[in-house]
Amino acid sequence: xxxxxxxxxxxxxxxxxxxxxxxxxxxxxxxxxxxxxxxxxxxxxxxxxxxxxxxxxxxxxxxxxxxxxxxxxxxxxxxxxxxxxxxxxxxxxxxxxxxxxxxxxxxxxxxxxxxxxxxxxxxxxxxxxxxxxxxxxxxxxxxxxxxxxxxxxxxxxxxxxxxxxxxxxxxxxxxxxxxxxxxxxxxxxxxxxxxxxxxxxxxxxxxxxxxxxxxxxxxxxxxxxxxxxxxxxxxxxxxxxxxxxxxxxxxxxxxxxxxxxxxxxxxxxxxxxxxxxxxxxxxxxxxxxxxxxxxxxxxxxxxxxxxxxxxxxxxxxxxxxxxxxxxxxxxxxxxxxxxxxxxxxxxxxxxxxxxxxxxxxxxxxxxxxxxxxxxxxxxxxxxxxxxxxxxxxxxxxxxxxxxxxxxxxxxxxxxxxxxxxxxxxxxxxxxxxxxxxxxxxxxxxxxxxxxxxxxxxxxxxxxxxxxxxxxxxxxxxxxxxxxxxxxxxxxxxxxxxxxxxxxxxxxxxxxxxxxxxxxxxxxxxxxxxxxxxxxxxxxxxxxxxxxxxxxxxxxxxxxxxxxxxxxxxxxxxxxxxxxxxxxxxxxxxxxxxxxxxxxxxxxxxxxxxxxxxxxxxxxxxxxxxxxxxxxxxxxxxxxxxxxxxxxxxxxxxxxxxxxxxxxxxxxx
Amino acid sequence: xxxxxxxxxxxxxxxxxxxxxxxxxxxxxxxxxxxxxxxxxxxxxxxxxxxxxxxxxxxxxxxxxxxxxxxxxxxxxxxxxxxxxxxxxxxxxxxxxxx
Lengths: 668, 99
What we know:
The structure holds two protein chains of two kinds. By secondary structure, chain A is mostly helical. Chain A has 26 helices and two strands. Chain B is elongated and about 50 Å long. The interface between A and B is medium-sized, with 13 and 14 residues.
């Protein structure tokens, strides 16, 4: 079979899994649904590997295969196909997406075991992976937008998974609305591209764009900015990032899936895919890189003060995606995608360990309440340590090589791009601080009650409270079920964590600057048309980036050690002294408050005005007036309808006679 | 003979029929009056046919007779049904369809 056939199978298996579980939910006992879902994704992963093998058999110039099942629309000037594009970039993405998603599925089999919505959960989860695979394999803008919207819907369904929890449904709506804003940007960009280049296929658009647009012409800049709206909404970049921290309302493996494999990487992929357009519009690319840099600083600074374990990790995701967006925007495509891959490994691992900790704490997520879990959860602790080291870019771990490759490339571009190098290094320091803040707060220190209970071999079962509002939870719908599952006791949770821990440690070895170039060489055929991608970082700057990265990481970890181990409590004193700054960070730079004032309140006021003034006077006036006119009219006509037959006959005769007389008069 | 006399007779029969429909209250008499109106029309049609020397008017008259026969069947059927259900034989009493 050819690579495209395998690629179609990659899409087909998760869809089939979703449908099978959805239709057969009544007759799937125990963990069957979970294993079916995992098997579907596992088969998709195997097919992705087969597609990879088939693709690598071809010469480098021919690794660009298209295949389509049928035409959506075929008319004058528009030809939209249900077509996929298989090239190194999309194969790279399906490998990462299906591989990491498979491990998350296996983890969920045990983690979600006692949830009442177990089968619904796996049906959604498979659909989510299907949508993401469709998105990255799409060969034209139409199918890309279809996948894009599916991902948005699937994230809505999973974030609101515990639908009895009001904060969860609000978070789902928020995610959906912000994603639709992005969809609109993407659709407008696709319409403009169709109008200008006359094609919707990636190949057609990208080959014609250089002839249609002048370099940095306002129209192509506008198109790229519209694409960026879509990318930023999915990838949670400023100013469309506010949905991602709220998305923590979903089950923890869903957070792992959204953050590591499926959703937030879509924007990075889109910019890498549309790189011919961005290279025609350097202004848009620079804006994108600047926003990526701003976002990585913003999110890292917020992660320093947030106290909710999952939200710290969420802000760290926003920050790391900022690195990737910055990377692909300055044309460091392979570096950005390499970081996407390593980030998928360690971020999935980090959420899995967090899930284990939260289960051990019976649903508690506040790191002020968690401490001393080191001995109670030995395996989780080690896995978390690996993830944190990779996140903090500790020398030798996966994140180290990928992050420093982006920064090295920024330095190599020179000039104003040094700013990105500086911002990235500053962000790396903060990353080290917040990554080890979690370690030191949750695992070091004196064991708390739950940890002591666990050490005695019992699992605490507290009452469930909503971590956001403190309301008592209705555990009838699940969360997190009457039982808790921790990695120490569940093989399906431990094995994926072990694999991801190894990948977090060794995932960087495929691309060590100056030594191995697996990812770069693999992706090269997708970026041959780009002159910027051919820039290679000189060994001097590579060494500088590696040393700066190592120094930043160690500094960050050292600061965290000073604050939370050597002088516990000093962080509180610092927060008290810099109260203004702390409040600014704790309120997430007041973005939510700003949106409330700028968008939510005016919309609500407009709605009230419409309901009070427009509805009452105009709409009700129109409706009431119509009814009145009809009533007056019918009271006149009713008189004629006497019901007496002879009157009708008289009317008839009079009418006919009048007509006859009229015609007689006219005929004269 | 002048056609006018035929037409005058035809108009006379038609008006007698129309007056009967308007003034009488028994459904049976109304039906008879209707027949008078139709036959007044038929007389005019036959007279015109004679005048022009073509058979079109006679064909019309025949068709009117057929329609009249069908109408009488329906009308008499209704009247018989009214007798059966002991309704008053007065069209003024049957005014339930008033608005």
